[in-house]
Design a protein that fits this description.
The chain has 462 residues and is of the alpha/beta class. It has 16 helices and 22 strands. Helix 7 links the parallel strand 11 and strand 12.
Amino acid sequence: MTAQLWTSEEAAKATGGEAKGDWTISGLSIDTRSLEWGDLFVPIKDARDGHDFIPNARAGGAAAVISENPNEQAPALIVKDSVQAMRDLGVAARKRSKAKRIAVTGSVGKTSLKEAIAVICGSVGRTHKSIKSFNNHWGVPLTLARMPKDTEYGVFEVGMNHAGELADLSPLIAPQIAVITKIAPAHLAHFKNVGAIAEAKAEIFEGLAVGGAAILNRDDDYFDFLAKAASKKDAAIISFGAHKDASVRIEGAKSEAGRQSADLVIDGESYALSLPLDGAHWIENAACAVAACLAAGINPEKSVAALRGFRALPGRGEAIDVKIDGKLFTLIDDSYNANPESMKAAIETLSSRASGRKIAVLGDMFELGKDELDLHAALSVPLIEADVSRVIFTGECMRALKGALPRQMRGAWVRNWEGAYEALRHELSDGDTVLIKGSNATGLSQLVAAIRKEQKGVADVL
């Protein structure tokens, strides 16, 4: 970022703080490792007090720092609470911009959908979006505070794993458009049941502008519940899915290796959708993105055109060709995170993608509560249906899945990603297709990184 984002005077007015020195910033950072020249450094108190890193931030090129220390040297912004100051900057950024704001939440697909919406919006106007998965109590205000004044479309990912979190974050964004991808069993360790998850996701409507739009999955079991919750804000309901009453109706869906296609029917008009991606779930994601952008005033024809070149993100279904130990195989990198719903979608992708043997390297799904072993074991059904040849397991809960599979499908159970790598080397043959997926904390993304590092120049993105 190089354009002026905030002046010292503007930042002081927005936060009620005291500006020391006369400065301008071009961005914000809460991490000195990723801080860019010209950023305002915001020290966060977590396992470490971010104030301890202020010298590093200055040495790294910070134009100014926020500080709760009244004796902090210029250039600085002195405040009582650094996180609250970041939130205040976020609110001020929202108020000074005329951007149409789209908030995205749901049990699955938030980051990928956010990226798809941003690609469409970016094709027609200046667009600001959450980076990576910056979707929590720090990431949302940080993304807002970074929003340039001339932004035309703002796309914000909003996550939660406890009730009350979206009720806090949604009013910060005050979206005109709120999107819920799907309700599914995720974070069940913190909720009584899936219905309680739906209630927590419906909190996204608490910040929705009156008369705004709610984008909902018409095929979701909780559609009626969510639509009723959105109606309290007099929201227009724009639905997507294969249901006959969907506002953006999916017809003629076709899934092939590296290509998904369908017709999206909107108000009687049909729009041809073609995606260079693996996995039938992408058709639903695309229909959702088109629905959200329809609410933002973007013509569906422009939306489907923008998506024709969309690519999966690393860790979220990206397919690459890799050669290890002289064996050439296709790797499907879905290592970023996992819950039962996304696991099933990934296994379906493996099934549709592969022409030869199919191997799955699967890690534990976390935060599933008392039924976690049953939910892991239940993955045996889609794995068997997908005709997966061998499964490599890592994590204690994956023992339940191993026991539920036929003996001929059982590969090694290992303790970590390093063990999974050795087990995979043992299993591999030329022409295999390998899916790697698990919750982020399983470390399977490090397995993917190790494979990428070892490949010998043949990992061209498909």
